Protein backbone atom coordinates (compact mmCIF):
# COMPACT_ATOMS: atom_id res chain seq x y z
CA UNK A 1 0.00 0.00 0.00
CA UNK A 2 1.38 3.40 -0.99
CA UNK A 3 1.99 6.12 1.55
CA UNK A 4 0.48 9.59 1.50
CA UNK A 5 2.32 12.22 -0.52
CA UNK A 6 1.95 15.87 0.49
CA UNK A 7 3.31 18.68 -1.65
CA UNK A 8 4.89 21.46 0.42
CA UNK A 9 4.83 24.91 -1.15
CA UNK A 10 5.08 28.48 0.08
CA UNK A 11 3.55 31.85 -0.62
CA UNK A 12 6.96 33.30 -1.52
CA UNK A 13 10.67 32.52 -1.58
CA UNK A 14 12.40 32.32 1.80
CA UNK A 15 9.07 31.86 3.58
CA UNK A 16 10.27 28.75 5.42
CA UNK A 17 9.30 25.77 3.24
CA UNK A 18 12.45 23.84 4.06
CA UNK A 19 12.13 24.63 7.76
CA UNK A 20 8.44 23.63 7.71
CA UNK A 21 9.12 20.41 5.82
CA UNK A 22 11.78 19.34 8.31
CA UNK A 23 9.63 20.40 11.26
CA UNK A 24 6.60 18.40 10.11
CA UNK A 25 8.76 15.38 9.33
CA UNK A 26 10.21 15.53 12.84
CA UNK A 27 6.79 16.06 14.44
CA UNK A 28 5.09 13.20 12.62
CA UNK A 29 8.06 10.88 13.13
CA UNK A 30 7.83 11.53 16.87
CA UNK A 31 4.13 10.64 16.64
CA UNK A 32 5.09 7.21 15.35
CA UNK A 33 4.75 7.76 11.60
CA UNK A 34 7.33 6.58 9.10
CA UNK A 35 8.16 9.82 7.30
CA UNK A 36 10.64 10.92 4.66
CA UNK A 37 11.15 14.16 2.76
CA UNK A 38 11.95 14.68 -0.89
CA UNK A 39 13.00 17.71 -2.93
CA UNK A 40 11.16 17.99 -6.24
CA UNK A 41 13.95 19.91 -7.97
CA UNK A 42 16.99 21.39 -6.23
CA UNK A 43 18.76 24.37 -7.76
CA UNK A 44 21.94 26.07 -6.64
CA UNK A 45 23.73 22.85 -5.68
CA UNK A 46 26.13 20.48 -7.41
CA UNK A 47 25.64 16.95 -6.12
CA UNK A 48 23.80 17.09 -2.80
CA UNK A 49 20.55 18.89 -1.96
CA UNK A 50 21.15 21.42 0.80
CA UNK A 51 17.42 21.36 1.56
CA UNK A 52 17.48 17.61 2.22
CA UNK A 53 20.51 18.16 4.45
CA UNK A 54 18.54 20.79 6.37
CA UNK A 55 15.55 18.45 6.72
CA UNK A 56 17.74 15.77 8.30
CA UNK A 57 19.35 18.32 10.62
CA UNK A 58 15.93 19.50 11.84
CA UNK A 59 14.72 15.92 12.19
CA UNK A 60 17.81 15.02 14.22
CA UNK A 61 18.19 12.20 11.75
CA UNK A 62 21.19 10.83 9.92
CA UNK A 63 20.94 10.15 6.23
CA UNK A 64 18.49 7.54 4.99
CA UNK A 65 19.65 4.98 2.47
CA UNK A 66 17.21 6.71 0.13
CA UNK A 67 19.27 9.90 0.50
CA UNK A 68 22.44 8.07 -0.48
CA UNK A 69 20.57 6.56 -3.44
CA UNK A 70 19.42 10.08 -4.47
CA UNK A 71 15.76 9.09 -4.39
CA UNK A 72 15.10 12.12 -2.18
CA UNK A 73 17.00 14.47 -4.51
CA UNK A 74 16.48 13.09 -8.02
CA UNK A 75 17.18 16.31 -9.93
CA UNK A 76 19.84 18.87 -8.98
CA UNK A 77 20.89 21.90 -11.03
CA UNK A 78 23.84 24.15 -10.31
CA UNK A 79 22.48 27.67 -10.77
CA UNK A 80 20.39 29.14 -7.89
CA UNK A 81 17.36 30.16 -9.93
CA UNK A 82 13.91 29.08 -11.00
CA UNK A 83 14.10 25.56 -12.49
CA UNK A 84 13.19 26.72 -16.00
CA UNK A 85 16.27 28.97 -16.02
CA UNK A 86 18.58 26.65 -14.09
CA UNK A 87 17.93 23.83 -16.54
CA UNK A 88 18.73 26.05 -19.51
CA UNK A 89 22.00 27.19 -17.95
CA UNK A 90 23.00 23.59 -17.20
CA UNK A 91 21.99 22.65 -20.75
CA UNK A 92 19.81 19.71 -19.80
CA UNK A 93 16.12 19.11 -19.27
CA UNK A 94 14.31 17.94 -16.16
CA UNK A 95 13.78 14.19 -16.14
CA UNK A 96 10.22 14.12 -14.82
CA UNK A 97 9.97 10.36 -15.15
CA UNK A 98 12.99 10.01 -12.86
CA UNK A 99 11.32 12.27 -10.28
CA UNK A 100 8.00 10.42 -10.49
CA UNK A 101 9.68 7.03 -10.14
CA UNK A 102 11.62 8.25 -7.10
CA UNK A 103 8.48 9.63 -5.45
CA UNK A 104 6.62 6.39 -6.13
CA UNK A 105 9.42 4.33 -4.60
CA UNK A 106 9.48 6.51 -1.48
CA UNK A 107 5.70 6.21 -1.13
CA UNK A 108 6.03 2.43 -1.26
CA UNK A 109 8.53 2.48 1.62
CA UNK A 110 7.16 5.23 3.88
CA UNK A 111 3.78 6.17 5.33
CA UNK A 112 4.25 9.86 4.53
CA UNK A 113 6.32 11.60 1.85
CA UNK A 114 6.75 15.37 2.18
CA UNK A 115 7.62 16.60 -1.30
CA UNK A 116 9.08 20.10 -1.13
CA UNK A 117 8.80 22.31 -4.18
CA UNK A 118 11.08 25.10 -5.35
CA UNK A 119 9.65 28.52 -4.54
CA UNK A 120 5.90 29.10 -4.81
CA UNK A 121 3.08 27.40 -6.68
CA UNK A 122 3.45 29.48 -9.84
CA UNK A 123 7.19 28.93 -10.26
CA UNK A 124 7.90 27.62 -13.78
CA UNK A 125 9.54 24.21 -13.98
CA UNK A 126 9.78 24.59 -17.75
CA UNK A 127 8.60 27.32 -20.10
CA UNK A 128 5.30 25.45 -20.46
CA UNK A 129 4.82 23.79 -17.06
CA UNK A 130 4.27 25.59 -13.75
CA UNK A 131 4.79 23.94 -10.38
CA UNK A 132 1.05 24.01 -9.73
CA UNK A 133 0.47 22.22 -13.05
CA UNK A 134 2.73 19.39 -11.89
CA UNK A 135 0.88 19.22 -8.58
CA UNK A 136 -2.46 19.13 -10.42
CA UNK A 137 -1.27 16.33 -12.71
CA UNK A 138 -0.66 14.16 -9.66
CA UNK A 139 -3.46 15.56 -7.47
CA UNK A 140 -1.16 15.94 -4.48
CA UNK A 141 -2.79 17.54 -1.42
CA UNK A 142 -0.92 20.74 -0.61
CA UNK A 143 0.68 22.03 2.57
CA UNK A 144 1.09 25.79 2.11
CA UNK A 145 3.57 27.76 4.22
CA UNK A 146 2.84 31.37 5.16
CA UNK A 147 3.80 33.79 7.92
CA UNK A 148 2.99 37.08 9.61
CA UNK A 149 5.28 39.22 7.50
CA UNK A 150 3.78 42.31 5.88
CA UNK A 151 2.13 41.37 2.57
CA UNK A 152 1.57 37.73 3.42
CA UNK A 153 -2.23 38.02 3.49
CA UNK A 154 -2.26 39.03 -0.17
CA UNK A 155 0.25 36.34 -1.20
CA UNK A 156 -1.57 33.67 0.81
CA UNK A 157 -4.98 34.44 -0.67
CA UNK A 158 -3.56 34.46 -4.20
CA UNK A 159 -2.01 31.03 -3.58
CA UNK A 160 -5.26 29.69 -2.13
CA UNK A 161 -7.22 31.01 -5.10
CA UNK A 162 -4.78 29.26 -7.44
CA UNK A 163 -5.34 25.97 -5.60
CA UNK A 164 -9.10 26.41 -5.73
CA UNK A 165 -9.09 27.25 -9.45
CA UNK A 166 -7.37 23.93 -10.20
CA UNK A 167 -9.48 21.90 -7.81
CA UNK A 168 -6.55 21.04 -5.56
CA UNK A 169 -6.96 20.07 -1.92
CA UNK A 170 -5.36 22.19 0.78
CA UNK A 171 -4.30 19.82 3.54
CA UNK A 172 -2.87 22.47 5.84
CA UNK A 173 -1.85 26.10 6.11
CA UNK A 174 1.39 26.33 8.07
CA UNK A 175 1.95 29.63 9.86
CA UNK A 176 5.68 30.16 10.31
CA UNK A 177 6.27 31.97 13.60
CA UNK A 178 9.97 32.19 12.74
CA UNK A 179 9.12 34.65 9.95
CA UNK A 180 6.95 37.07 11.91
CA UNK A 181 6.65 40.77 11.18
CA UNK A 182 8.63 43.00 13.50
CA UNK A 183 5.32 44.71 14.22
CA UNK A 184 3.38 42.43 16.61
CA UNK A 185 0.09 44.12 15.67
CA UNK A 186 0.55 43.11 12.02
CA UNK A 187 1.57 39.58 12.98
CA UNK A 188 -1.43 39.02 15.23
CA UNK A 189 -3.89 40.51 12.77
CA UNK A 190 -2.46 38.40 9.94
CA UNK A 191 -2.81 35.25 12.02
CA UNK A 192 -6.40 36.07 13.00
CA UNK A 193 -7.41 36.99 9.45
CA UNK A 194 -5.95 33.85 7.89
CA UNK A 195 -7.50 31.58 10.53
CA UNK A 196 -10.92 33.10 9.88
CA UNK A 197 -10.47 32.90 6.10
CA UNK A 198 -9.44 29.26 6.32
CA UNK A 199 -12.45 28.38 8.48
CA UNK A 200 -14.82 29.87 5.91
CA UNK A 201 -13.23 28.91 2.59
CA UNK A 202 -11.19 25.78 3.43
CA UNK A 203 -12.96 24.34 6.50
CA UNK A 204 -11.37 20.90 6.13
CA UNK A 205 -7.82 22.25 6.06
CA UNK A 206 -5.66 22.19 9.17
CA UNK A 207 -4.05 25.25 10.74
CA UNK A 208 -0.52 24.45 11.94
CA UNK A 209 1.64 26.93 13.82
CA UNK A 210 5.30 26.37 13.16
CA UNK A 211 7.10 27.17 16.38
CA UNK A 212 10.53 28.73 16.49
CA UNK A 213 13.23 26.11 16.90
CA UNK A 214 16.64 26.68 18.46
From TrEMBL:
It is found in: Cytoplasm. CDD domains: DTBS (cd03109). GO terms for cellular component: cytosol. Transmembrane segments: none annotated. The active site is at 39. Its EC number is 6.3.3.3. Substrate binds at residue 43. Gene3D superfamilies: P-loop containing nucleotide triphosphate hydrolases (3.40.50.300). Belongs to the dethiobiotin synthetase family. Catalyzes a mechanistically unusual reaction, the ATP-dependent insertion of CO2 between the N7 and N8 nitrogen atoms of 7,8-diaminopelargonic acid (DAPA, also called 7,8-diammoniononanoate) to form a ureido ring. This is ATP-dependent dethiobiotin synthetase BioD. The gene is bioD.
Amino acid sequence: MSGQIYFVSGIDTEIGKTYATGFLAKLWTEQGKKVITQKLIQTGNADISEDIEKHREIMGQGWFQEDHDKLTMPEIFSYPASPHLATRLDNREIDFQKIENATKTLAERFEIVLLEGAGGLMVPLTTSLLTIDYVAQHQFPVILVTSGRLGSINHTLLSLEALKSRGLKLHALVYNLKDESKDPLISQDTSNFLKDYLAIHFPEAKWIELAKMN
